[in-house]
Amino acid sequence: MKKLIGLLLFTIVFSAFSQKNNDMIKTYIDHIIESKPIDYFSLHNYLNKQDLTIYEAQSLFDKSLNTKYIIGQIFALNSMGRAYRNQSEYSKALEYHQRALKLAEITGNVDVQILTLNLIGVIYRRQDDIRNALDYHQSALSLAKKIKKPNLENKKSISVSQNSIGNIYLTLHQYELALDQFNTCIKVQEELNNKRGLAINYQNIGKAQEELGLINEALISYTKSLSYNLEINSKLGKVICYNSICGALIKKGDYKAAYDTIQKIYPISLTLNDKYYGTNTLSNLGLAELKNNKLDLAKEHLKKALVVSENYHFIQNQINTSFYLSELYQKLDSLKVAFQYYKKANNLEKKTVGEKNILYVNNLISKHNIQSKVNEINALESKTKIQTLQLARNRNILIITLISLALISVALYSVYIQRMLKNDQKILLLEQQALQTQMNPHFIFNALNSIKLYIINNEQKNAVYYLNKFSKLIRNILDVSKIKEVSLKDELNTMDLYMSIENIRFNNEITYTVQINDNVNTDTIKVPPLILQPFIENAIWHGLSSKKGEKKITLSVSKISPSQLEIIIKDNGVGRELATEIKKGKSLKRKSIGIDLTKERLNTFAHDYSAECSIVYTDLKDDQGNPTGTKVSLIFPLN
User: Fold this and answer.
1) How confident is the model at residue 23 (pLDDT cuts 50, 70, 90)?
2) Helix, strand, coil: what percent of the chain each, to 5?
3) Which of 131-140, 429-438, 442-451 has the lowest mean pLDDT?
4) 487 near 525, Cβ under 8 Å?
């Protein structure tokens, strides 16, 4: 009887509280419609930072529509999208966010466009739709970075995009790339003192560390995330953290602690409308029960988790839960059933990972094409600036000459000389920048297509190996794109990466050897960046591409005097004469400016050291006078 009275009192108090809360939200909505704030992000503050229910958001939308209040309509549509997303009704969520994005584009509100693009990207990421998720997050990031003076909300949006792209890298098993994104986000969140953002990023960092096998470090990151979630009292955040801690403890072999951890959060997860994290909790509970030999409970919870995952198309959770069920039935000696679940999980994982990797490479190709266009624009801008400076220099020459003739002033003539030197330096710098945008796009496109073939042929190890080498090569090229000199060691490392990628198209038939004399310290010697690439490229495509049999390139480095360094690039190709004839016979002829530009860069480099550079070609022949290859000798001044 006492229990019944207590339950009745609780129901009355809860109903009164709910009614009071509903009345407060209604008051807030009426106040918004009356005042019509023009700042989208201030609406959340008006609502006391509380997420609207679907009913409340619909009420705000209807009232905003009647009063033609566009910002209120967009806010209400995004609120409905969030509410449906948290209930795992992704189709409805997408519908409302797309409507919000259309209104934001019509009104030209860039900040709201960025926010909404990120919200749409999150929905696609929940459904493992990597291509669409990446497209929307990159669109948001691109818009945000175009803002010259970003405000607080812009910085938050940039952080959300980077965090989401990091999560996409996680699903693609690119864990180090993911960590780079998350560590960048942490700095922004600390600057903004955004505790929710810090909680999310430490959780993601823990996941990347766990996948890299750094279990203890992952547990530290998960614990930091949990402390922030406890501080802001985020129910969903606590559920996510306890799930991650449980998984890490299982990998560590501490099954008892894992079971105790997941039991703490399982009742709370049942109160969530979010099926995604609720199902994840159910699956982890089943795994913890399996590891603690509570097999009947494990079977019940894992089967239930699999059914929900299949109904809502949670692909990753289907894979994990099927593997767990395979292990369960193996323990029950039902080997046939265990094999069926294992086969199901394995096939689903192969298909998913393969598709994601192909999408990843396609996206790299797409980004490269965009970057090539940007480089072309930058090159045109640089050339325009050069022409402007040249015109300005000519004008200054005329003015100074007239003044010099009129006043015969040595002082004015000195100023003229100084201006000439400054303009010449600017022109040289811009010419270098224009040159550095000339990285052959055909090489990059062909390299990516070669890597793509490995993926299509299911040669995953080769694909990952060459994809890592390719990413390092691109990073090296970007790193040196704005500097005048690099160490010889760095230049040789870059050429080694370049040869590895070019060699794919020759089925790794080319033997590339580097010989460095003992009297050469490659760490201290400086050379212009990417200065050797055109000569190696010529050796490959003019000397070796038409040759049958053994193909070799040898690069040797030696100090020929205290002030001079010699680099020799030697190939055993068909020779320059035959290469020229072959080139004449080709229908497609492409003018190569790489060697001419390289000569100009070498002259500029030598001028800085008041020395000379030289390039000497030697046709190699055997005793009968038959061509046996080509040798190129480059002489550099030592810094």
Assistant:
1) low
2) 75, 10, 20
3) 429-438
4) yes
Distance CA 51, CA 82 (A): 9
Between CA 18 and CA 46 the distance in angstroms is 19
pLDDT tens per residue across span 201-216: 898 899 889 888 899 9
pTM to 2 decimals?
0.47
Residue 605 has pLDDT above 80, yes or no: no
Give the residue from 438, 461, 479 where a domain finishes. 479
The pLDDT of residue 326? 87
For residue 291, being part of any structural domain is answered with no
Contact criterion met (CB below 8 Å) for 521 and 557:
no
Tell me if 83 sits within 8 A of 51, measured CB to CB: yes
Task: Quote the Cα angle for 464-465-469, to 5°.
Answer: 110
Give residue for tokens 């000339």: 438
Of 74, 119, 115, whose CA–CA distance to 94 is shortest?
119
DSSP 539: I
pLDDT digits over 485-523, tens only? 889 999 999 899 889 888 887 888 899 999 999 989 999
* Residue 598 one-letter amino acid: T
Distance (Å) of CA 455 to CA 339, 361, 500: 27, 9, 17
Give dist(CA 342, CA 272) in Å, integer.
Answer: 30
Is the CB of residue 285 less than 8 Å from the CB of residue 301? yes
How many domains in the chain?
2
User: What is the DSSP track for 290-333?
Assistant: HHTT-HHHHHHHHHHHHHHHHHHT-HHHHHHHHHHHHHHHHHTT
Which residues constitute the domain of residue 558?
Answer: 510-637
Helix (H, G, I), strand (E, B) or coil at 409: coil
| pLDDT class of 15 with cuts at 50, 70, 90 | very low
| Residues 425-440: tens digit of each pLDDT | 644 554 454 445 445 5
Bridge partners (DSSP) of residue 616 are 633
Q: Which of 119, 135, 47 is nearest to 84 (CA)?
A: 119
Q: Is the residue at 131 inside a domain?
A: no
The stretch 110-128 carries a mean pLDDT of 85
Q: Are 368 and 458 members of one domain?
A: yes
Is residue 356 one of the residues assigned to a domain? yes
Residue 518 identity (one-letter amino acid): D
Is 470 in the same domain as 536?
no
- Are 566 and 630 members of one domain? yes
Q: 222 with 241: CB under 8 angstroms? A: yes
CATH of the domain at 534: 3.30.565.10
State the Cα–Cα distance between residues 88 and 83, nearest whole angstrom.
9
Contact yes or no for 439/478 (Cβ under 8 A):
no
Cα dihedral 387, 388, 392, 397 in deg (nearest 10): 0
Do residues 386 and 433 make contact, with C-beta atoms less than 8 angstroms apart? no
CA 190, CA 182: separation in Å to the nearest integer?
Answer: 12
471 pLDDT tier (thresholds 50, 70, 90): confident
